[in-house]
Amino acid sequence: MKVFIAGLSTETNSFSPLPTGLKSFEEGKIHRGTATADPIEFWTSPLHIWKKNSLANNWDVVESLSAHAQPAGLTIRSVYETFRDEILEDLRNAGSVDIILLSLHGAMIADGYDDCEGDLINRCRELCPNAVIGGLLDPHCHLTELMMQAADLLMPYKEYPHVDIPERAEDLFRLAKETALGNITPVMRDFDCRMILALPTPSGPMREFVDSMIAREGKDGILSLSIAHGFPWGDHERTGTRALASVMEMQTRHRKLLLNWERSCMKCGTNCWPKT
Question: What tens-digit pLDDT sequence spans the chain (276 residues)?
Fold first, then answer.
């Protein structure tokens, strides 16, 4: 097996007048195939985990770009395109790969690109139509149709604050591995919860809901359950909270299960709404 890993992210506030340029990414640190040679950081921990796990399986690893910036306004078009094209060029040079794992945000918007993550994932798919593609996402993402169509697996963090990045990186690797080995065929479905609000998870209704999601994974063909909280400061057609499920196959029992889960999502959202 050959695994390709890369990371590119920022959280875009469409209403901010401050553009996200090259300096913003330089402040966050840019690694060109060397992120795992440095100590683990917030942005680079997924790449460390994916490389460690790949080597433990005696698989080849191709490490590409890791570039991340703090939240700000629209990313300058040339900056995004340069980073995107660098990742794609590394992917071309890697030859045939079995798994592509990308550490992303999900709410990155550049001048001319409302869905940077979907654009990147889709271009990776065009280069490697048979590879298993997995995307690790911040829950404050815009979960788009293009991401869903182009990726095999999408894994938002479950916690806000985001204290579970290593666990979700491990989950994504495990599911990508099982998919590449032919043991599972994941099918993703999302549901518009029709709400925009903050959903902190340390306590209250969201703590109970996240715990229930985790408890249901691995049972009845459920591979993963997630909530994409959305990012209300992103002027995007998919702004808002969406529920995301990955199951083994879309069978009748899964449709019924997902319908019940969707109702649970709506109930949880109602319970989280500030009382006045």
Answer: 999 999 999 999 999 999 999 999 999 999 999 999 999 999 999 999 999 999 999 999 999 999 999 999 999 999 999 999 999 999 999 999 999 999 999 999 999 999 999 999 999 999 999 999 999 999 999 999 999 999 999 999 999 999 999 999 999 999 999 999 999 999 999 989 888 988 999 998 999 999 999 999 998 889 999 999 999 999 999 999 999 999 987 565 666 676 676 777 767 777 776 665
- Spatial contact of 245 and 261, defined as CB atoms under 8 Å apart: yes
* Cis amide linkage into residue 161, ω under 30° from 0: yes
* Residue type at 80 in one-letter notation: Y
| Spatial distance between the Cα atoms of 50 and 8, rounded to a whole number of angstroms | 15
Residue 111: give the domain boundaries: 2-272
pTM of the model: 0.95
CATH of the domain at 79: 3.40.50.2300
Overall domain count for the chain:
1
The two tokens of residue 146 are 């293009």
φ, ψ for residue 207, nearest 5 deg: -60, -45
Single out the residue of 150, 134, 102 nearest to residue 224, CA to CA. 134
Which of the 8 DSSP states describes residue 275? P
